[in-house]
């Protein structure tokens, strides 16, 4: 299909607070009941939607069957809240197959990163995202995360991608405030903060929302922050943000999602397990995490 075929409308589909869900493990296998319970808890706490199989979900360590079962579990527990599915890789044929296979799931969108490792030109990146958007049944969110993929999307490339009717949002981990601001001013892509430490700034600049890992915990405060920013109450929003910052900082003091999983395990929501080569958080960090999470030591 070309960019002229049937198109979804440009609704602000992806606004608000989205949780990039962790994938719980138990004795090496995916713990689907824990994932369902986590999704149910977060839904009740007022989040806007979920991302399954993002970086926080350790998607790179899940096989395709596990990824689909994770998605099914989240869709079921989300009970109508929108769910976005993460898609990544660097073999275009295989990623295309994945996009086509996802057409039978009621997902709100696909979160697609640039192909990692191979570092294509801007023209190659345009080709990658347009090809996948042409093949997709649902909107694409561009996952701009150069420090993980090795590929930097320029502002011009992102603006060119915004002309595709299925490319509707960006998860912005680009680390370039000028690019963030230009995309918000352009207005065609919904800009979501993809770095937790950038949530306040992105929303204050006029961004649509955030895809967050640290909001697994202290969720109501993140929800409150978003509401205050949406209402333009900067003074109160600043107060809530200042209180959240030490928590956000400790969540990324070791590779994500290890710190988060340590807290969720301490709270009894899952095992403190990651798939190698990701490692559980260190004991020293564990104590800082418990203090920031307001959990008493065991
Ligand atoms: O999985 C995600 O989506 C997120 N990933 C970022 C990361 O790369 O670690 C962090 C962000 O909070 C959400």
UniProtKB/TrEMBL annotation:
Subcellular localization(s) per the UniProt record: Cytoplasm
Catalytic activity: L-aspartate 4-semialdehyde + pyruvate = (2S,4S)-4-hydroxy-2,3,4,5-tetrahydrodipicolinate + H2O + H(+)
EC id: 4.3.3.7
PROSITE patterns to which the protein is assigned, alphabetical: DHDPS_2
Transmembrane segment boundaries: none
Gene Ontology biological process terms, A to Z: diaminopimelate biosynthetic process; lysine biosynthetic process via diaminopimelate
A GO CC annotation given for this chain: cytoplasm
Pathway involvement of the protein, from the record: Amino-acid biosynthesis; L-lysine biosynthesis via DAP pathway; (S)-tetrahydrodipicolinate from L-aspartate: step 3/4
Major subcellular site: cytoplasm
Binding site for pyruvate: 56, 211
GO MF term list: 4-hydroxy-tetrahydrodipicolinate synthase activity
Site, Part of a proton relay during catalysis: residue positions: 55, 117
Catalytic residues, chain numbering: 143, 171
Enzyme class: lyase
UniProt entry keywords in alphabetical sequence: Amino-acid biosynthesis, Cytoplasm, Diaminopimelate biosynthesis, Lyase, Lysine biosynthesis, Schiff base
InterPro entries: Aldolase_TIM, DapA, DapA-like, Schiff_base-form_aldolases_AS
HAMAP family (alphabetical): DapA
Assembly and oligomerization: Homotetramer; dimer of dimers.
Family annotation (NCBIfam families): dapA (TIGR00674)
Entry's family note: Belongs to the DapA family.
General function of this protein: Catalyzes the condensation of (S)-aspartate-beta-semialdehyde [(S)-ASA] and pyruvate to 4-hydroxy-tetrahydrodipicolinate (HTPA).
Name assigned to this protein: 4-hydroxy-tetrahydrodipicolinate synthase
Organism lineage string: Bacteria, Pseudomonadati, Pseudomonadota, Betaproteobacteria, Burkholderiales
Gene that produces this protein: dapA
């Amino acid at each position: 299909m070309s960019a002229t075929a049937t198109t979804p409308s440009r609704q602000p589909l992806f606004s608000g607070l989205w949780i990039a869900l962790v994938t719980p493990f138990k004795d090496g296998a995916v713990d689907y009941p824990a994932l369902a319970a986590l999704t149910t808890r977060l839904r009740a706490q007022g989040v806007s939607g979920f991302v399954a199989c993002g970086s926080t979900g350790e998607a790179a360590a899940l096989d395709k069957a596990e990824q689909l079962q994770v998605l099914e579990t989240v869709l079921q527990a989300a009970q109508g809240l929108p769910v976005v599915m993460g898609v990544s890789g660097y073999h275009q044929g295989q990623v295309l197959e994945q996009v086509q296979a996802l057409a039978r799931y009621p997902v709100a969108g696909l979160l697609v990163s640039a192909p990692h490792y191979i570092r294509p030109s801007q023209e190659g990146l345009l080709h990658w995202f347009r090809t996948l958007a042409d093949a997709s049944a649902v909107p694409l969110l561009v996952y701009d995360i150069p420090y993980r993929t090795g590929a930097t999307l320029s502002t011009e490339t992102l603006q060119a991608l915004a002309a595709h009717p299925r490319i509707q949002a960006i998860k912005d981990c680009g680390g370039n405030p000028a690019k963030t601001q230009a995309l918000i001013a352009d207005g065609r892509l919904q800009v979501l903060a993809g770095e937790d430490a950038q949530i306040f700034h992105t929303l204050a600049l006029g961004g649509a929302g955030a895809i967050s890992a640290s909001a697994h915990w202290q969720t109501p405060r993140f929800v409150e922050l978003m509401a205050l920013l949406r209402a333009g109450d900067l003074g109160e929003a600043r107060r809530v943000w200042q209180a959240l910052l030490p928590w956000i900082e400790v969540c990324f003091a070791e590779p994500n999602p290890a710190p988060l999983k340590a807290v969720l395990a301490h709270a009894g929501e899952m095992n403190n397990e990651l798939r190698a080569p990701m490692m559980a958080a260190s004991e020293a960090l564990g104590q800082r995490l418990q203090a920031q999470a307001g959990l008493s030591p065991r």
